[in-house]
Amino acid sequence: MTSPDDLHRRALLQGLAALAMSGWAPATLAQADAAALTPARFAALSTTLTGFAYKDPALASSMLKALTDVVGADALAKIATLAAVIAPDALGDELRIAGVDKQAQAVLVALYSGAVTTRTGTVVLTYEQALAWQAVPWTKPNADCGGLTNYWAKAPQT
Amino acid sequence: MSDVLTADVVIVGSGVAGAMTGHSLARAGVKVLILEAGPRVDRARAVVQFRNSPVKDANSPYPANPMVPQPDLSNIGAYYVQAGPVTFNGLQARVVGGTTWHWGGLTLRYRPNDFRLKSRFGVGVDWPLSYDDLEPWYAEAERQIGVCGPPDYDWGAPRSTPYPMPPIAPSYLDSVIGTACGKVGLTLGTFPHGRNSVGFDQRPPCCGNASCVPICPIGAKYDASVHVAKAEAAGARVEPLAIAHEIVIGADRKVTAIRFKRPDGSVHEARGRIFVIAAHAIETAKLLLMSTVPGRDHTVANSSDQVGRNLLTQLDEGMIGLTREKLYPYRGPVETSGIRELRDGDFRRMHGASGTSPSNEGWVRALGPFKLAQKFAATGLRGAALNAAISDHMSRELAIGPSVEVLPDPDNRVTLARDQLDPLGLPRPRIQFRWGRYEQDGAKVAMDYVLGLMNALGATDVQRLGPVTDSAVMGGTCRMGNDARTSVVDRNLRTHDHPNLYLIGSATFPTITASPPTLTIAAFAMRAGLQIRSDLQSS
Question: Which pTM was predicted?
Fold first, then answer.
């Protein structure tokens, strides 16, 4: 009987093969490293996990650096590689098997919240551009103006 | 070298009480000095501080000067020494402009019965003046603050004048809740606000930043920095980072000076003819208790032993749930409507009145989608499915609950923790607090209605929160009354013990109600200003 894990690994191998043919993926997961996590790959990772990516290059770079510091370059690269090739519904299991599920959760929360939790506390890189706000386009970050006075009296256009 | 500052009137505290009193005096040509323990606030910097804060609670935009500690909800015991049994959560912002920086902006008047609890319902105490005595001052305070409100409902407080501005519109959330209220015998009314519905007093109209607590980025919500600036423009001197620690009493029982420290520990003095302590319920009591009277065995203004006693707040309970219909919270001012019922009536013989309002802030003000992303990501959701879950949850979040009046209790008190000093060597306030059946029964009645409302809305994931002490409302500790044996100040807010010492603010309130106290504080400040001018002319 084929287990879900087998299916995930098969999907992983198929994905890696496809990426290798495309010319930019690392040959093996073990070779993945931080240097390979270009802004484009980081944006791709962000899009896979959240559906969105930071548009401001400086902010994206800050987030990448902060996450590299917090979760480690190897783990981040591993997560990015898996996220690039595994279907979203199977990604959680593969991350767990690869031993980076907790780091992936930290990455996801940081992307959504715009804040990175370090050993010494939480550092807010951005509040207004945090990706979670894009999930709720019918509102906006607190302290930003929402529109004309009394706009809140009507249901938002969704 | 010590500074000696002089003025006709020395005011301690630059919140709404001190700022409005100072402005009313300065514009009449009185030389005014305002001592403020905390620093000035730059609004733009405070907004940045808010955005950069991971917790985003009420004091996040206003980081305390290390030498001037203030309570923080994330660590309420760091400043207050909690003696229990109930944890006291009253927040104060020790900054120029005071706690109005992070008030919600609701400007309900107290009702006539709020001033006569004892004679009308047989509980608590009566105030030494009536609603009618205060009504003209409410009207003046509304003009000064800039209040918008509904023309068709007075919230049980008869009005001699229209609101200065047309009302802020109820939220879409209110319209859904209002329909459900009708099914359970409740009605929803539109609140009056100290926030601009149109341009007023050179401040812009509200654009729904949804950050009233902790800061309005554009100044559409009134805060006392408005009257600090007006007082200064009229000639008042404001001294930030001047931490009053001693009231000096002369041989004739009159106050001669206020001694204050700078953050470097140096001691200075402010001399004047009349002195006003307007430092909110905790700090006002603390300053009086730290100050001795020569030749007497009691502290300043405390021959009655009432200073620090009868600390007041509200009992808060709450309920959160996910409604069947989308509400779209996280938009608009913090609260735009409230339930009209349970705020007054014969039931006050038996249990406390309560004010219940649906919140426009969802379950987790300012951090809602972040918390949900964390929650749903842990279940394995990613990408579009995760975003849909966040949006659906947030759009149906309802948070609602009553704030119940708490009767005065002499054992609810502020004393000095002489064994636990702040960085300047001043005792931290020790707070002892409890409540009883009157308050708990008031909450139970209100929460039964709230549960019925949740059911009418088809809510799921319903959770009950509390009871806790309210973080925004506090008073008492220096109650006003006609009898010098049982009160600290008279109906004009002059201390019984010292003819040139006034206490202004909710510290003087004999009772607290279901309504926010700020407008009433402002009305008393206006009234006291006139009395002080009269004193100056006659002395």
Answer: 0.94
